[in-house]
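Translate sequence into structure tokens.
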Amino acid sequence: MYSTFERGGEFPLALSSRVKQIKYPSKQPYRWNTHAKFITSSLGELKDRRILRADIIAGITLSLVLIPQAMANAQLAEMPPYYGFYASFVPIIVSALFGSSRQLSTGPVALVALMVASELGQLAVGEQAYIAYAILLALMVGLLQFGLGVLRLGVLVNFLSHPVVIGFTNAAAIIIGTSQIDKLFGVTVERGGAHYERMIRMWDVISAGFHTPTLIMGLSAIALLFILRRINPQIPGVLIVAITTTGISWLIGFEQNYGGQVVGNIPEGIPAFALPIIDWGIVPHILSATITIALIGYLETISIAKAIATQTRQRIDANQELLAQGLSNIAGSFFQSFPVSGSFVRSTVTLRAGGQTGFASVIAGLVVILLLLFFTQLLYHMPLSTLAAIVMVSVTALIHFKPIASAWKVHKHDGIVAISSFALTLIFAPHLDQGILIGATLSIALYLYRTMKPRVAFLARHPDGAFRDAVEHDLELCDAIATIRFDGSLYFGSAGAFEDAVLERIRDPKLRYVIVDAEGVNEIDATGKEMLVGVVQRLHEAGIEVIFTRTKKQIIDALNRAGVLEEIGRDRFHATLDRAVAHVWGALEDQYPCTRSCPAECPLHRPRPDGDVFYRV
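Result follows.
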């Protein structure tokens, strides 16, 4: 099943599920020959002419979607539109060569472009410095992703919970769409300040007057995009709109006769290889954005790879994809690329066009190179309002509030996190990293809060023979025995809850045994261990013995390593609950016969001479 964004947006978020095709390698030193496996396997398949032909067709099809989207996303990143091409040939080729997903298409995407604009727009620098910092940001993002991949730390992205991401992306989609309003109306609005402040300035400027031909061109592009989507989502609407509006712009002289803004001259040729200019003074200012873009970009990429893998049944290496994304951004920065990541729309195009290997993406990259070398003049007359329309329509598929409502229904804490992430991202924009950081922190804090209050149930035997929650099933508890089930890890946050539950139950003066059903305990830390030993000792001094049943191996091993297993007593641990109950009643048989006041704890039917019912295994 696809997430909301996988159905038609740029950012799939299937975070709460894990597909079996994903391979998370063990924590062993990275082996560089892993790259060769992916490259050689694809090259070997290209010997089949059918696969080669399919990849060439898919690559050309992909390039027709990539070209207008690249320009639109470059504009969203507040860079000259042709920089989208610089981010569309080296990164897509490198990702195809080193990634494990055959249909994944890497390049400029809306969400990453927005984060670039949001971060660098605060620096209030000139265009050349802005471009240099964007290229530096790509290098830093790539180095971070590459380092995390080498250390096999891709799992860090799991700290961005599903509620955090759905709240963040809904807010980001709104910010993306509204940030293009000035270009749609053909007005100029000063950058800087909070996003809502810029919206106020934009309203003031538009109220004073706007460029009508630009607005007509933009609204026409929006209408045509929606119409084509409504007729058939498979129609390449972006390409058709780009060609149509560019042709109209050329025919009517949109720039010369009406004063409309167009893409203009695009430098011919591919940019020369050059190391990014490293300004150490600016690095600390863009470090938080580097972390956010690296994690969000990887999250976007691996979500796409998982979605495709469910259809193609290929195996995805998560850390390999992280390495590939890092290499894509590093290599791209040497050719003036801003940060990139995987694109769901373009990956889907590759899949539907019949792409079989990463060679399809290589073909798309080569088409972009040919465009830069020979055909840049064809794009001169493309209206900037068309690019704004492409961005605005594409993000409509990202705005879905149903997942937020669904998160609330699952658990109100998840709803709080999703709503908070949404609101904080809007409030702090353009500081998007702050919104997602606070959301992630809140998510972790609420999770820890929930684990501090795990479920504790007092068990009794149901008439059907099973041990069940005495409160839920209105079962009678035994005075002599307390059977407690604890569902949660015994760690510093929850140890107190376990201790309180035990101490609450031992107020009964007739109590002689406490049976702890530990099946729900998966982990124990030093605090939990100390609490456990202390409870056993204190209850023993009070004449109450503690018995453990169904304790998992990792808990036994932890207690054994800590040297307290013998101190507690190995004989206190039983494999099943029935055996633990039988052991206890064997010791209590004379003092506490199974009378009608205590039927639920007795092991098995057997009549006694006095008429009481006795149960024994």
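Note: The chain has 24 helices and twelve strands.
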